[in-house]
Amino acid sequence: MPVLANVLLTAEGNVLHVAATDLYVSVSGGLDAEVERAGSIAVPAREMYERVNAMPDGPVRITVSETATIVIKATASARRYTLHGLPGADFPALPRPEEEAVRLVLPVQTLGRLIARTHFSISPDETRSHLNSALFECASGLVRMVSTDGHRLSKMEMEIEEHEASATMLVPLKAIKELRRLSDEAAGSGEEGSVTISQAGPNAFFELGGIQFSVKLVDAQFPPYEQVIPSTSERVVRTSRLQLLDALKAVKLAASDRTKGVKLSLAQNALHITSESPESGSGFDEVSIDYEGPEMCVGFNAEYLMDVLTAIDDDEVTLGLTGELDPAVLRPATKTDDRYVAVVMPMRV
Predict the structure, then answer these.
(1) Which residues of 11-45 are buried (b: 16+ CB within 10 A; e: fewer)?
(2) 95 domain-assigned
(3) What's the CATH number where 260 sits?
(4) Do 216 and 117 reside in the same domain of the chain?
(5) Do 249 and 175 fall into the same domain?
(6) Do both 52 and 142 map to the same domain?
(7) Are the CB atoms for 148 and 121 separated by under 8 Å?
(8) In 3-state terms, what secondary structure has residue 105?
(9) Boundary-marking domain end, from 225, 249, 279
(10) Whose CB among 17, 58, 59, 346 lies 3.0–4.6 Å from 10's, allowing a Cys bridge?
(11) Is 90 exceeded by the pLDDT of residue 187?
């Protein structure tokens, strides 16, 4: 549908509304404007952005003809552009939340933190829709986000005020990326904003920072994630997050480009990290840990561990291990109110 490469401009009252959609994800917003005559037009999005971005500072005047031709002119200079668009009526209607829909209001920092802790373990494989999405749940004073790609899993929970709204939805990766960007921008403004979440039929709606964002949810069954998270670990290691992250980055340089595999070897108060590649040789580093149990070795994809350590903002982490074929469990070590857990499956190195 060629019209989907366009952005819809609708002028009414004292507002210029802007909207775009690919029929799965939709974004709209508005800005103050002096509207002399109401109307709408769909114009090529990239071309419109480039031309407005090239305008000098100051107001611009937008004029639309009956043949759907748009003229963009700077009021402070002679610079102007002409673009050929389509009638606004040709643009598909965007989904709208129902007036009676129950709405959940969260601090925008809460949504941003949920996404930051879990987005990296969403599968990029769009053919596996149940893994190419994040599970968002809200009930009983808790809001939760979970993601997994089959090799690793991350779960983040946060307490919220008791609310009559409850939700369970699978949000696709492409929408998670946009929500992350929008929440980061809203949080970066320095204001303590909020996000309003509602659901109607197959669509979820997020309103934050003056932007209305909607997404068609994934209709699939998310894996039973609670069964994947080990309830206990036979060996628990505590160490500095940054030191472990730095050592993994260094040793990964000598790991196989295909597997990114490193071997973790537990010893008395020391964690040995090694890698070996037929092409590039080997690497070794050591990290001090709080551990006095039996020795053991287990292999992991270094990047999977690094993603988790980057997402955690605690100074120290705990690493739970049981056997060579059992998953590792990583948690923040000092922030007892931080309900975050990540699970990484082992690999043969």
Answers:
(1) beeeebbbbbbeeebbbbebeebeeeeeebbbbbe
(2) no
(3) 3.10.150.10
(4) yes
(5) no
(6) no
(7) yes
(8) strand
(9) 225
(10) 17
(11) no
Unique residue bearing structure tokens 């129950």: 102
In whole angstroms, what is the distance from residue 79 CA to residue 30 CA? 24
234 three-class SS? coil
Q: Tens digit of pLDDT for each residue in 77-102?
A: 999 999 999 999 999 999 998 887 88
Give pTM, 2 decimals: 0.89
Q: Say whether both 218 and 288 belong to one domain.
A: no
pLDDT tens digits along 213-270: 999 999 999 999 999 999 999 999 999 999 999 999 999 999 998 999 999 999 999 9
Would you state the pLDDT for residue 190? 63
Determine, yes or no, domain membership for 109.
yes
On average, the pLDDT of the chain sits at: 93
Yes or no: say if 265 and 271 are a contact pair by the CB < 8 Å rule: yes
Residues 6+ positions from 275 with CB-CB distance below 8 Å: 251, 252, 254, 255, 256, 261, 262, 263, 282, 283, 284, 302, 349
At residue 173, the pLDDT reads 97
- Report how many domains make up the chain: 3
Q: How far apart are CA 248 and CA 285, in angstroms?
A: 8
Q: Determine what percent of the chain falls in helix, strand and coil, rounding each to the nearest 5.
A: 20, 45, 35
Residues of the domain holding 280: 229-344
Does residue 349 lie in a domain region? no
More confident residue, 90 or 188: 90
